[in-house]
């Protein structure tokens, strides 16, 4: 029955992915005006020449074709997508959007992936401790502080951090993801520069994100600690550490994992804004550029990718949940 | 409810900002006036919060920004809460196929990264005023609330008194409006508060990306202007610190209220309050 | 010889403006291998008594006075480490709902293994699992169930598993908190029979707390009746059943159908249990008592031994200085 649960979740995410693709298809067609003509005009203005027939086809497939009905358009759109074709960037003409996105993706995965996991781990751990010792001095300091922290906009924390550590103290570079003077590749100097540039953006994301996890985990732990099985574990004379982790935290974590879905979108969104503050060469910065310069193809491509990535991360969280909660079988 | 200090402090801060938003134009001075004699000046007696690169008074801008940000926040929360009620309550009340459909829809919006979605839509309708921005934020930010309301009305509608009234043929409309909804007011107001913070934050994010109407003043546009003029790299901290701090304060206030309300409704959390623990320890030591 | 001597145990809840006294001057004694039943309505302080006895209470509950002497050591004065050594090897507990008392994400066997190994460092993992299977077998659960999760067992099995768990380290005293309320009557009888059999074989003493007096009449050697945080009567099961002294005990006896003897007319007790936040002055039962007389709302009766019945004490002004007038 565990498999039934998995199959249902998988089905949901497939439907969600289909919805995301459908949304991506519909959005430009629902918007006032005719984005595809606007894009073609813009391309011709930028490049100073007529858009080749092949590019025209691709743009119409993605952003709307005044000469075809919606069903036909959707078929064209899907065919286009299946080739990995997301259109051509207006700003970086004639570079395909897919190429730009693939270039930026590793940076974002590195930054957002590691920081999300780190923030989740730190927040969960501190939340368990604060909830276990609820009402203690640690809890009385940590919880209000993180309440404040979880209400602060990510990009504002990023600005502050940049000002303090980059400008005032001069410890970290002020922008970028690597030292532009170094050749890109697997050299030690390059790796060090990547770390040096990444540490501050990463630290600000972790700093802004862990509070949310902490608060949720703290309250779940406070509630779980008063469950009978934790009481019984204490009555058994197990070591406090074992009671805290194997009994209280282990169960308190489960809703936190379910909440992962709801929080992940926010964390990714916040992380994207952080990239912008640091001019970090990831997806967020790409999105920023495309919004600033009305590069619709790039906007759409980035959105599709982010959505699919978030859905995938959620699926992984669901899989982990099945491993963590044996009762899933009964419910499945 | 006012017994909890968390609720009291949270509500005080919120009231303060609402008053600021309402009375701002009267007390704050002209946020757009350029004082050429003081450009990029740090806080002083003349300009308490300092001035921007354009010689505008940061205090006046922060006060004016309260109106811009709160307006979007409250509008977005109203729209989001309304949708959450329309989707969540019928799903929980009717169950069955209605629930399956609406719940799928809710879960869909729950797992979608909302900010990028809002960005894209706002990107297409660029340069729009606060009303359109609030509409977009509200339209995409209702899913969490709908989920809560669904769960609550599900448990409500399976209670004896609702079941009994259903049996005697009371119309659904009447039951929903007079029996189910009144029991949900606590949840709905918490949701509204949550939505308002979400709205203020999302507006700030959108403004930061330069998507909102550049003519309007909000805390987000202030931070964006500071970022555009490289305020960080020039050390003009007084330009971007106040608006961010205001956002954080409002967010903290709302979280405090929600925490306080949680403690009132969940006795387990109430027992974990510091005052209780300290009192217990004192009794033991005495 | 007594296993447990409780003297003047008083527990307050300190969360509100004024402390709420949930256990008030509770005193009793438990002999080796004896089953003491504690009966009372909800709100009588019996659950508070359990967490206080086992030293498992959390704020806002605080033991403000009294001693809990277990084999000569006062549990109230022990620190956490000393207490932990005593737990389960000497003092075990069975909670009301086994569904809630077993960790839902751990295999049943693992919940035996961790306690076995934490109290016996020399015990290997494999031996511990084998011992867990033996313990389950002792309450009639087949050995292959050690690998099950709690939700995979039936309600009765879970409850029996919790009893087996309580006996894992050979305790001298097992505190049981209504362990049969969550199961049907047939299962209830099986479990009680098992408790009696195991007690006979292993010789542990039991404090059995329940709201169901008729059940105690079958099971317990002696019975204590709690009302409003106080013990109002203690006696042997026999004498409490045939000759309950306290008006409350009488009311309680007459409001439950007896398990074996022929049916009597059932009568309830009018009124509701006292509000502990605002206890009535004098005898806590006087507002509901049909036999009250002048002074019951002023003087608080003490527990006194009834003349010629050394094993029967009662706190009621109908029996001044132990005169047995009824």
TrEMBL record, chain A:
GO cellular component, one term: plasma membrane
Gene3D superfamilies in the cross-refs: MetI-like
Alphabetized PANTHER family for the sequence: OLIGOPEPTIDE TRANSPORT SYSTEM PERMEASE PROTEIN
Membrane topology, as annotated: Multi-pass membrane protein
Chain segments annotated as transmembrane: 12-31, 107-132, 153-174, 194-216, 252-278, 298-324
Residues in coiled coil: none
Broad class of where this protein is predominantly found: membrane
UniProt keywords, alphabetically: Membrane, Transmembrane, Transmembrane helix, Transport
Keyword Acyltransferase (UniProt): no
Cited Pfam families: BPD_transp_1
InterPro entries recorded: MetI-like, MetI-like_sf
CDD domains linked: TM_PBP2
Compartments (UniProt record): Cell membrane; Membrane
GO biological process, one term: transmembrane transport
Protein name according to UniProt: Peptide/nickel transport system permease protein
Start and end residues of each ABC transmembrane type-1 domain: 105-317
Family classification: Belongs to the binding-protein-dependent transport system permease family.
Keyword Transport found: yes
From TrEMBL, chain B:
Stretches assigned to the ABC transmembrane type-1 domain: 70-258
Localization (cell): Cell membrane
Keywords linked to the UniProt accession: Cell membrane, Membrane, Transmembrane, Transmembrane helix, Transport
Name of the protein in question: Peptide/nickel transport system permease protein
Ranges that cross the membrane: 70-93, 105-125, 131-149, 175-197, 236-261
Keyword Protease found: no
Similarity comment text for this entry: Belongs to the binding-protein-dependent transport system permease family.
Annotated membrane topology: Multi-pass membrane protein
A GO molecular-function descriptor: dipeptide transmembrane transporter activity
This protein's GO CC annotations: plasma membrane
PANTHER family tied to this protein: D,D-DIPEPTIDE TRANSPORT SYSTEM PERMEASE PROTEIN DDPC-RELATED, OLIGOPEPTIDE TRANSPORT SYSTEM PERMEASE PROTEIN APPC
Matching Gene3D superfamilies: MetI-like (1.10.3720.10)
Family matches, as InterPro entries: BP-dependent_transpt_permease, MetI-like, MetI-like_sf
UniProt organism field: Kribbella rubisoli
Pfam families: BPD_transp_1
UniProtKB/TrEMBL annotation, chain C:
Keyword entries, A-Z: ATP-binding, Nucleotide-binding, Transport
Domain of life: Bacteria
The protein's name in its UniProt record: Peptide/nickel transport system ATP-binding protein
Protein biosynthesis among keywords: no
Recorded GO MF terms: ATP binding; ATP hydrolysis activity
Family annotation (InterPro entries): AAA+_ATPase, ABC_transporter-like_ATP-bd, ABC_transporter-like_CS, Oligopep_ABC_C, P-loop_NTPase
Family classification: Belongs to the ABC transporter superfamily.
Record-linked PANTHER family: MALTOSE ABC TRANSPORTER, ATP-BINDING PROTEIN, OLIGOPEPTIDE/DIPEPTIDE ABC TRANSPORTER, ATPASE SUBUNIT
Residue span(s) of domain ABC transporter: 4-253
NCBIfam families for the chain: oligo_HPY
GO biological process, one term: peptide transport
């Amino acid at each position: 029955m565990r498999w039934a649960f998995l199959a249902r979740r998988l089905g949901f995410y497939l439907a969600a992915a289909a919805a995301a693709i459908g949304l991506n298809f519909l959005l430009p067609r629902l918007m006032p005006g005719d984005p595809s003509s606007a894009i073609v005009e813009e391309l011709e203005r930028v490049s100073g020449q007529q858009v080749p027939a092949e590019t025209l086809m691709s743009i119409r497939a993605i952003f709307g074709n005044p000469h075809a009905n919606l069903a036909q358009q959707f078929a064209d759109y899907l065919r286009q997508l299946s080739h990995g074709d997301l259109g051509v960037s207006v700003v970086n003409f004639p570079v395909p959007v897919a190429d730009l996105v693939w270039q930026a993706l590793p940076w974002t995965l590195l930054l957002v992936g590691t920081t999300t996991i780190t923030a989740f781990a730190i927040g969960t751990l501190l939340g368990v401790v604060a909830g276990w010792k609820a009402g203690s001095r640690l809890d009385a300091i940590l919880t209000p502080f993180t309440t404040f922290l979880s209400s602060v906009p990510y990009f504002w924390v990023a600005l502050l951090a940049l000002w303090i550590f980059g400008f005032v103290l001069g410890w970290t570079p002020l922008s970028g993801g690597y030292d532009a003077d170094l050749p890109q590749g697997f050299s030690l100097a390059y790796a060090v520069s990547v770390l040096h540039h990444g540490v501050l953006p990463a630290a600000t994301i972790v700093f802004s994100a862990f509070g949310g996890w902490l608060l949720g985990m703290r309250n779940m732990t406070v509630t779980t600690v008063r469950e009978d099985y934790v009481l019984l574990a204490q009555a058994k004379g197990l070591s406090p550490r074992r009671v805290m982790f194997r009994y209280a935290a282990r169960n308190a974590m489960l809703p936190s994992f379910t909440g992962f879905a709801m929080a992940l979108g926010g964390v990714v969104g916040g992380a994207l804004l952080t990239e912008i503050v640091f001019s970090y060469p990831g997806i967020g910065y790409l999105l920023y550029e495309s919004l600033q310069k009305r590069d619709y193809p790039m906007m759409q491509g980035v959105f599709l990718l982010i959505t699919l990535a978030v859905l995938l991360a959620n699926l992984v969280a669901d899989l982990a949940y099945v491993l963590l909660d044996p009762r899933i079988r009964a419910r499945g | 409810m006012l017994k909890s200090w968390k609720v009291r402090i949270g509500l005080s801060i919120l009231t303060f900002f609402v008053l600021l938003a309402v009375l701002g134009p009267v007390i704050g001075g002209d946020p757009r006036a350029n004082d050429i004699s003081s450009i990029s000046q740090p806080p002083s007696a003349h300009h308490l919060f300092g001035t921007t690169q354009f010689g505008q008074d940061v205090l006046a801008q922060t006060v004016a920004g309260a109106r811009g940000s709160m307006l979007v926040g409250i509008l977005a929360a109203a729209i989001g809460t309304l949708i959450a009620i329309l989707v969540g309550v019928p799903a929980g009340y009717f169950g069955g196929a209605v629930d399956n459909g609406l719940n799928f829809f809710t879960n869909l919006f729950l797992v979608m990264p909302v900010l990028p979605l809002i960005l894209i839509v706002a990107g297409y309708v660029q340069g729009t005023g606060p009303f359109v921005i609030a509409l977009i934020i509200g339209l995409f930010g209702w899913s969490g609330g709908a989920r809560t309301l669904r769960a609550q009305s599900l448990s409500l509608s399976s209670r004896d008194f609702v079941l009994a009234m259903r049996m005697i043929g009371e119309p659904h409309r009447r039951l929903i409006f007079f029996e189910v909804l009144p029991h949900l007011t606590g949840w709905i107001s918490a949701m509204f508060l949550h939505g308002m913070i979400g709205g203020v934050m999302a507006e700030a994010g959108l403004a930061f990306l330069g998507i909102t109407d550049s003519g309007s003043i909000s805390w987000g546009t202030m931070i964006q202007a500071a970022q555009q003029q490289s305020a960080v790299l020039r050390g003009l901290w007084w330009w971007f610190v106040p608006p961010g701090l205001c956002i954080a304060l409002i967010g903290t206030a709302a979280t405090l209220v929600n925490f306080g309300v949680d403690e009132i409704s969940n006795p387990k959390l109430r027992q974990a309050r510091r005052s209780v623990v300290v009192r217990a320890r004192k009794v033991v030591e005495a | 010889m007594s296993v447990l001597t409780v003297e003047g145990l008083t527990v307050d809840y300190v969360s509100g403006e004024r402390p709420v006294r949930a256990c008030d001057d509770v005193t009793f004694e438990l002999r080796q291998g004896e089953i003491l039943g504690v009966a009372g309505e909800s709100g009588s302080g019996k659950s508070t008594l359990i967490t206080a006895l086992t030293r498992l209470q959390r704020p806002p509950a605080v033991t403000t006075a009294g001693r809990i002497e277990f084999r000569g050591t006062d549990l109230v004065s022990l620190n956490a480490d000393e207490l932990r050594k005593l737990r389960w090897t000497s003092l075990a507990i069975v909670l009301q709902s086994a569904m809630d008392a077993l960790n839902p994400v751990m295999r049943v066997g693992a919940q035996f293994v961790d306690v076995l190994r934490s109290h016996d460092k020399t015990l290997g993992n494999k031996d511990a699992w084998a011992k867990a299977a033996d313990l389950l077998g002792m309450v009639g659960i087949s050995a292959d169930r050690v690998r099950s999760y709690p939700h995979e067992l039936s309600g009765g099995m879970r409850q029996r598993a919790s009893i087996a768990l309580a006996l894992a380290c050979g305790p001298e005293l097992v505190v049981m908190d209504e362990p049969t309320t969550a199961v049907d009557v047939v299962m209830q009888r099986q479990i009680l029979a098992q408790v009696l059999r195991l007690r006979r074989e292993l010789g542990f003493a039991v404090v059995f707390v329940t709201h169901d007096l008729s059940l105690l009449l079958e099971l317990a050697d002696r019975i204590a009746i709690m009302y409003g945080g106080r013990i109002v009567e203690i006696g042997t099961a026999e004498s409490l059943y045939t000759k309950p002294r306290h008006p409350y005990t009488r009311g309680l006896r007459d409001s439950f159908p007896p398990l074996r003897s022929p049916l009597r007319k059932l009568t309830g007790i009018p009124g509701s249990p006292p509000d502990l936040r605002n206890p009535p002055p004098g005898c806590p039962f006087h507002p509901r008592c049909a036999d009250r007389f002048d002074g019951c709302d002023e003087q608080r009766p003490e527990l006194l031994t009834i003349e010629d019945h050394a094993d029967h004490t009662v706190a009621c002004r109908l029996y001044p200085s132990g005169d047995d007038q009824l």
